[in-house]
Amino acid sequence: MSKRGAFIVIEGLDRSGKSTQTALLLSRLESARIPAKLLKFPDRTTAIGKMIDSYLKSQSDLDDHAIHLLFSANRWELASSIEHLLAAGTTVVCDRYAFSGIAFSASKGLPYEWCRAPDVSLPAPDLAVFLDITPEAAKARGGYGEERYEKEEMQRRVREVFRRIGEEIKGSGLGAWVWVDAGREKGVVAEEVWGHVELLARGVEGPLCRLWTDEIPA
Ligand code: DGP
C-alpha cells in the first residue's frame, strides 16, 4: 500500500515564531525531496477569510459566536483540498488549525465544548507542534501588533486553553501533540521541530483520522 502524506499542524501564541518555523520546515522538507505544501489559517484570501481579516483588523464587528463559526467555516472550505493533497502523498504543514479556534474563542468566555463542536470531524493532524513561549517573552519580541487578540492578558488565557487541548489530544490517542520551547534561538527550535516531523514526513501508512470523532478510548 502506498503511503499518504503527513498532516502537520504548527500552533502557538501570537509572536511565537510560527511563520518563521513553518517556512523553515517547508524548506527542510523540500531539501529532503519530500513533496510538501504550506497552508495558513485563517486563509484570508477566500470570501470568508476576507470577513475574518476585516474583523481581526477591527474594521468590522461581529458577535463572538458568529466569528467563531466563520473561522471554522474557513477551515472546512479547505478540508477537501487537505485530504486530496495527503492522499496524493503531499505532506501538509498548517500554520494554525482548529486548536487555535478553540483556544482563542474559549479565552473570550465561550463554552469550551461549544467552541470545539463546529470543528468535529475535520481531518485530524498526525502531529500538532505547539511552539510554547510565555506571553512576556512573546511581547518582548518587538511587541504585539495591532490586531484584536494581540494583548498580553488575552495571550495568557489562550496559552492555558492550549494546554488543556494538548493534554486532551495526548490522552485521546488522536494523533500526537508535542510542546516545543519556542523561546530559544530559531535554529535550535527548527532542529527540534524537524526531529518530531522527519519520520512522519517519510509517509504515513494509517488512514487519516477525524478530529474528535476517531478518539481512541484510553
Ligand atoms: P495569524 O494570521 O496567525 O496572526 O492569526 C490571526 C489571529 O487570529 C491570531 O490572533 C489568532 C487568531 N485566530 C486564529 N485562528 C482562530 C480561530 O479559529 N478562532 C479565533 N477566535 N481566533 C483565531
Automatic annotation (TrEMBL):
Belongs to the thymidylate kinase family. SUPFAM superfamilies: P-loop containing nucleoside triphosphate hydrolases. This is Thymidylate kinase. Its EC number is 2.7.4.9. InterPro entries: P-loop_NTPase, Thymidylate_kin-like_dom, Thymidylate_kin_CS, Thymidylate_kinase. GO terms for cellular component: cytosol; nucleus. The keyword Iron does not apply. Transmembrane segments: none annotated. It comes from Lyophyllum shimeji (Hon-shimeji). The keyword Methyltransferase does not apply. The gene is CDC8. It comes from the Eukaryota. GO terms for molecular function: ATP binding; dTMP kinase activity; nucleoside diphosphate kinase activity. GO terms for biological process: dTDP biosynthetic process; dTTP biosynthetic process; dUDP biosynthetic process. Keywords: ATP-binding, Kinase, Nucleotide biosynthesis, Nucleotide-binding, Transferase.
